[in-house]
Amino acid sequence: MGNKMDLKLGIIGGGQLGKMMAQEARKFGFKVFVLDPTPGSPASQVADSQIVADFYNAEKIKELVEKSDISTYEIEHINTDVLKELVYEGYTVHPSPEVLETIKDKSRQKQMLNQNHIPTSRWKMVEKDLYSEVIDFGLPAVQKACHGGYDGRGVFVIHEKQDVLNALKCDSFLEELVDIEKELAVMVARSAKGEIKCYPVVEMAFDERANICDTVIAPARVNQRIQQEASDIAVSCVEALDGVGIFGIEMFLTRAGKVLVNEIAPRPHNSGHYTIEACATSQFEQHIRAIAGFPLGSTELLVPAVMVNILGEEGYEGRPNFAGIEDVLAIPGASIHIYGKKTTKPFRKMGHVTIVDKNIDTALEKAEIVKHKLKVKSY
Fold first, then answer.
1. Does the annotation place 262 within a ligand binding site?
2. What gap in Å lies between CA 137 and CA 174, rounded to an integer?
3. 85 annotated to bind ligand
């Protein structure tokens, strides 16, 4: 590859994750190319160029990878067949297409966890009609789509037998409805040379209306045993996948004190945004370091933090209008990230705010002010 600081990075996906990856890659002096179907995507605003194409367009993905020294992605739902062909031809793609194939089919993800004795909730594929499967499995249960689900989509809770009438119509599996005390997450980085670094355990709170993460608290308010157990399990997930890059491991802490893996993301993750302001190395820089074969950076939490997602308001669609920016910027320790999406929709992630404070309770109080003051409507 010649001069390591003269690398060309290809990113499949031009959303906010791609944008923040590109910003870190540019710090290293890399050239950045992105592929996304939306002209003027957030990542294209900081990249050298954008290929406007669908995530399953084999020809255009080939074009991106062939002009890049290293390729990566910020989204799971992409064409893995062409990526496998390109890797076979000698091109570098991290995480590997095989890892992506395991992750993007959530039933294969569950099988991988079971095979590697990694704790996860009880589950069963829907092979017959859903009604009889539900009777056999027991209620309440969660129906999950094998493909395509994210940000609360592709999930349906079945409390009673008649709920089956409104269930998902796709390949799916049933999962036990876990009695959750907290939802936890851990970011883990593994470099191309096999070095592993683990970030602090964080807790996630969800907007119940859309089942979408709206707050992340770092560090998680759990005891040392739970922190260690969650960290160990997260590392074992990435080792089992033989993954290279940054991975977000979402977990349930049950009321009985068990830690169970919910889902794995083979990319930077919403639960790791706090690392930009609060850690020695952000998740985005760490991803670039990992896939480029550089030494991994310190994952030390320098100061407690709370991250709040800026979601599009209900009832508004169109060109975004951010109200309350000045009120938020007046809060000590608050940093605003606006993603640059051209259209807002209800519950769409339009940006985030991270609040750092030596006192986590004070940070949480400030986060409530942010939620109250900062609104995304439309013109």
1. yes
2. 8
3. no
